[in-house]
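Sharing a chain and its predicted structure for anyone who wants a worked example. Both blocks are below, sequence first, tokens second.
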Amino acid sequence: MTSPPASHPALPGLPALAWQALRADRLLHLLLAALLALTLCGPTPVRAYGALVDWPTIAALTGLLALTQGLELSGVLAWLGRRLVAVMATERRAALLLVASALLLSTVLTNDVALFVVVPLTLGMCKLTGMPAARLVVFEALAVNAGSALTPIGNPQNLFLWQLSQVSFGQFVLHMLPLAALLSLILLALTALTFGARPIALARQVPHGKLDHRLLWVALTLYLPFLVATDLHQAGWALLVVLASMAMLRPAVLARLDWGLLLVFVLMFIDLRLVAGLPQVQAAMAQLGLDRPEHLYFAGIGASQVISNVPAAIALAAYSQDWKVLAYAVSVGGFGTAVGSLASLIALRMVGEARAWALFHCYALPFLALATGIGYALLFRA
């Protein structure tokens, strides 16, 4: 009697792959450790943690991840990447087009939505050509922070401050225009200097995959209604529609979602709001002299580096109603550390390279210093 042939080792299943990803996520580990420390030392009961999470934001992020993943699995991003390569002769031209697109889209779609449009296309094109994906996505992350500063709908902190100020849309734009325009022009110039004139072309070994037309049209059909529903504060119901549609049509879309990113955002909401609620933090804020515009400006930039610019805007608005200074401060504060803007965290997670984090700070920290000086000069020296 012959023995059965030896079987090949089974590939790890999706739960195992998800667990491996979570085990390797250093940011997630840091947030969990911070949560444990805050739970042991802070006054907030654990049962209240759920109320600290901005669930509509989590729902909106989940839906955008699912729709973007659907577009990627449909093959349309690779198709668009090939068309982009066909019309862009050099790395410099391709980089300028993508960074400029991120800038413009962020003024009307918000900075995170602009990244969900541009970054997957960028990653697909870079796979086809060998362009440096990490560096290009870093510039796109900087671009959406610069572009979104212009309008009240460009990012959550602007929307909050616009409602707080009760000024018109046009007045808000006019105030932010000098800062957004200067930062955008400098970033485009830096892009042109960083990316060279090396010709780009499709790699020979890249296969021409077929488009999944059904998945493509479902994702495109749901995209705009999802954004409208989210704007109408119905992100939860819109998310249920997206998840149900993808589960019935292509379950692989949901299996490939970055669930770790969603968990990171949940933990960030809890950790940052627990920190903001500490009596020591509140006492320190009261000693900063935020009635002085210069102090408010630097406090907004500094707070953004630690708790992100959206919570910083909300926290500082409790101490000052000077929306003009606050808007500049938290816009500038979006640069610097990756925590400064949640859009930057999204971009770095999407690129999926460990070196992207170090590369981001090599560009973002000097850009923060430059933006800080520009914002200060426009506010206090004009």
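Comments welcome. The radius of gyration is 22 Å.
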